[in-house]
Amino acid sequence: MTLNVAIAGLGAIGLRLARMLDDGLVEGVTLSAVSANDLERAGQRVAGLKCKPKVVILRELPGHADVIVECAPARVFAEVAGPTVAQGRIFMPLSVGALLDHLDLVEEARQTGARIIVPTGALIGLDTVRAMAVGEIHEVRLETRKPPAGLEGAPYLVENAIDISNLTEAKRVFTGNARAAAKAFPANVNVAAALALAGIGPDLTKVEVWADPAVNRNHQTVTIRSDSGEARMTIANIPSAENPRTGRIVAQSVIAALRRLTSPLVAGS
Questions:
Q1: Same domain, 192 and 134
Q2: Is the residue at 269 inside a domain?
Q3: How far from 151 is each of 11, 38, 148, 185, CA to CA, in Å?
Q4: In 10 A of CB 202, how many CB atoms?
Q5: Number of domains within the chain
Q6: φ, ψ for residue 30 (rounded to 5)?
Q7: How buried is residue 3: exposed, middle or buried, by Cβ count under 10 Å (0-12/13-18/19+)?
Q8: Are residues 83 and 182 in the same domain?
């Protein structure tokens, strides 16, 4: 199988992903197009690639690719998702929290032949959660623990005047469900939305967010109880050098997801 891939957004994740695809990390996949808010700057950012992708506006991406990977700010999610699903393409969103507000896309995809594939991102154990969800899941909890710099500017902190700039010990800044967490921290806890979609949904998935000056990595701990067993899984992600709100592993998870589409052998559910 050969696939053309387009990337929406050339920030810390999108640009790294573009370079990885240009280096041939996924056999049979070609980076065919990119888009960003500033098209001129986008062209400059991909000018050094060996295979120059086309630079187009967001809604034109589906006309140039089989797979569209969304790495853009959540506010333009619908601009990317709508045309992609309408044209029957494969859509890989990283703004997974925004997907919770557009779940009508799932039914539309059923009609158009599109597929919506959510990469694992910065989380761990989604294959375990999906397997447990075949039976009955009793409880799913996510604890997100980040250095304060990785949470600064989050809407929930600003709206509630929560100051995390001079912490000397860990502070829990949010507790609620995954749907509320995705709105409160749109750039920080897309993992909560991904976990919810794999398991028991955004309203039943419980989330805590901690600002912790004692850590220098983004820690995600998933606890799950089900009729097939119990699990507690923790991952400590190295933050991206360009954007501490996200982890280096996120772009790699997209590469892994693309390899599942083209590889003759796939391990894991």
A1: yes
A2: no
A3: 17, 25, 5, 8
A4: 22
A5: 2
A6: -120, 135
A7: middle
A8: no
Judge whether residue 1 has pLDDT over 80. no
What average pLDDT does this structure show over 73-81? 95
68 domain-assigned: yes
| CA atoms of 246 and 57, how far apart (whole Å) | 25
- Looking at residue 112, its amino acid is T
| Residues written for the chain | 269
Query: What's the pLDDT score for residue 92?
Result: 98
Q: Is residue 73 located within the same domain as residue 154?
A: no
Q: Is 194 among the domain residues?
A: yes
Mean pLDDT over 192-213 rounds to 97
Residue 244 lies in a domain: no
State yes or no: pLDDT of 38 exceeds 80. yes
Query: Within 10 Å of residue 166's Cβ, how many Cβ atoms?
Result: 7
Domain extent at residue 163:
126-237
Mean pLDDT score of the chain: 95
Please tell me the distance from the alpha carbon of residue 3 to that of residue 67, in angstroms, as a whole number: 7
Residue 112's CB is within 10 A of a number of other CB atoms, namely 15
Query: What are the distances in angstroms from CA 63 to CA 34, 220, 268?
Result: 12, 37, 32
- Is the same domain home to 167 and 148? yes
Beta bridge partners of 211: 146, 171
d(CA 196, CA 219): 18
Tokens found for residue 205:
């998935």
